[in-house]
Amino acid sequence: MISEIDRLSVLEKLSILNTEQEQYFEDLVDNVRDILGVPVAVISLVGREEQWFKAVRGLPVCSTEREVAFCATAMYEPHGLAVSDARNDERFESNRLVRGEPGIRSYLGAPLIVHDNVPIGALAGISFETREWKPAERTLMRRLARQTAEFIEMRGYHLAAKPDLDEPRIAC
Known about the structure:
By secondary structure, the protein is an alpha+beta fold. The chain has helices at 4-13, 23-36, 70-74, 96-99, 135-161; strands spanning 40-46, 50-57, 63-65, 81-83, 106-114, 118-127. The two termini are 31 Å apart.
């Protein structure tokens, strides 16, 4: 398993943290919401102390603390993370996002794996109602997460090949 220092180094080298919105990622979260029928979808990148959303629909935030991030758990689950009722899951039952606002009940996430098996975050769908996730939905999320991770890598290689490009950053 990769060390946390090395994982964060890979994430930093991808030059994707705190960047502007990009249509490809925006379309992906819209697709997740539409396909799964969930109110929330995110592409989460997990840093040292927070998770930052490269794209988000259905939540009025662009980051959360890592300690409450479901995606920080999902990124280490090779087959993804499916939570039917977070109130009854010992990993999340005391999470403030479950007990309070926004009232997360169910979560389906798949890890974003880059380079040599390095987890950097997750693609996820979230609901405020309990839900049993179907095997086909889990498979779909793993496929979409692989595509997302591949695009993140290609994007990073493209930027590295053109160092004269000044990547716009946003403060979130």
